[in-house]
TrEMBL record:
It is an enzyme of class 1 (oxidoreductase). Belongs to the HIBADH-related family. It comes from the Bacteria. Residues 164-290 form the 3-hydroxyisobutyrate dehydrogenase-like NAD-binding domain. One of its GO terms (molecular function) is 3-hydroxyisobutyrate dehydrogenase activity. Keywords: Branched-chain amino acid catabolism, NAD, Oxidoreductase. This is 3-hydroxyisobutyrate dehydrogenase. InterPro entries: 3-OH-isobutyrate_DH-rel_CS, 6-PGluconate_DH-like_C_sf, 6PGD_dom2, 6PGDH_NADP-bd, HIBADH, HIBADH-like_NADP-bd, HIBADH-related, NAD(P)-bd_dom_sf. Residues 2-161 form the 6-phosphogluconate dehydrogenase NADP-binding domain. It comes from Yanghanlia caeni. Its EC number is 1.1.1.31.
């Protein structure tokens, strides 16, 4: 089975590497030559273009930033759907608008190609460890075809429903993640402003009723946890602008279905302000900087 893997960024690179290590025949591609070279150095074959990788692939996996990148890659006269084999399987792992996933699935079906949306949760740590959660939308039979590959990159695989349902479930999760990272940051900043040791406070809250994923795996304050973006100057990880994109997708959906998400709207406004202050490329846990007193940064 030949696999094309398009998009070798913070998430795509370790995911492609895990498939390569599991013995699958991978051909990777990214528009960034630095990303291509980093993966080539680890033994993963790299193609000259997305088209070259996808032409004879049985499965094409993509891990791109946002809807427009996915549309650009697959749709239109120069899109990959024009060169992919009939009967091939498309697995898009990017977090994008559910509407775009549905449009892609329809366009793929019209060309005899199966497509599922399979956005992930678990961060770069989960991508490296192969313990991601896949949240899949599409036909059950197509998920079964994808399962042997997803199992090499993840530990949990959920079928959320038809095409686009994976994206809807994913933005519900990420809206909650954005809110809880802000809440966790506020609580830590308050403790530090009172002179508490942030390591001790974080451990107290982790084991108390405020315990959550940020405290377990992704503490936002530098120095509390090793190997998290906060302790690497907020490099790598999940970018502020990607979180802002997901919170924006959630708010677009809120308007469409007339849901009520006041904290989701506030989280969107706070991440927007943080991005506009020049922090868009930092990891999203850097939102704690909005809450820290200058003498504590
Ligand atoms: P990233 O910016 O690190 O990587 C995206 C890569 O796509 C880049 O290397 C970029 O050069 C490449 N790219 C863009 N357009 C391309 C094209 N047309 N052809 C080939 N390559 C192209 O982003 P990431 O953190 O890896 O996130 C990817 C997706 O996963 C996003 O949708 C994000 O929301 C989602 N996600 C990220 C995390 C995380 O912790 N980083 C967690 C869960 C989900």
């Amino acid at each position: 089975m030949k696999i094309a893997f398009i998009g070798l960024g913070n998430m795509g690179a370790p995911m492609a590497l895990n498939l390569h290590k599991a013995g699958f025949s991978i051909s990777g591609y990214d528009i960034s030559s630095a990303s291509c070279e980093a993966l080539r150095a680890q033994g993963v074959p790299i193609a000259d273009s997305a088209g070259a990788a996808a032409t004879d692939a049985d499965v094409v996996i993509s891990m791109l930033p946002a809807s427009q990148h996915v549309e650009q890659l697959y749709l239109g006269e120069t899109g990959l759907l024009q060169v992919m084999k009939q009967g091939a399987l498309l697995i898009d792992c990017s977090t994008i608008a559910a509407e775009t996933s549905r449009k892609l699935a329809q366009a793929a079906e019209a060309r005899g190609i199966s497509a599922i949306d399979a956005p992930v949760s678990g961060g770069t740590g989960g991508a490296i460890a192969g313990t991601l959660t896949f949240i899949v939308g599409g036909k059950a039979a197509d998920l079964e075809r994808a399962r042997p590959l997803l199992e090499k990159m993840g530990a949990n695989i959920f079928h959320a429903g038809d095409a686009g349902a994976g994206q809807t479930a994913k933005i519900c999760n990420n809206m909650l993640l954005g809110i809880l990272m802000i809440g966790t940051s506020e609580a830590i900043a308050l403790g530090v402003a009172n002179g508490l040791d942030p390591k001790v406070l974080s451990e107290i809250m982790r084991r108390s009723s405020g315990g959550n994923w940020a405290l377990e795996k992704y503490n936002p304050l530098p120095g509390v946890m090793e190997n998290v973006p906060a302790s690497k100057n907020y490099a790598g990880g999940f970018g502020v602008d990607l979180m802002l994109k997901d919170l924006g997708l959630a708010q677009e959906n809120v308007r469409a279905v007339k849901a009520v998400t006041p904290l989701g709207a506030l989280a969107h406004a706070l991440y927007s302000a943080h991005s506009q202050a020049g922090n868009g490329a930092l990891d999203f846990s850097s939102i704690i900087r909005l809450m820290q007193r200058p003498e504590n940064t």
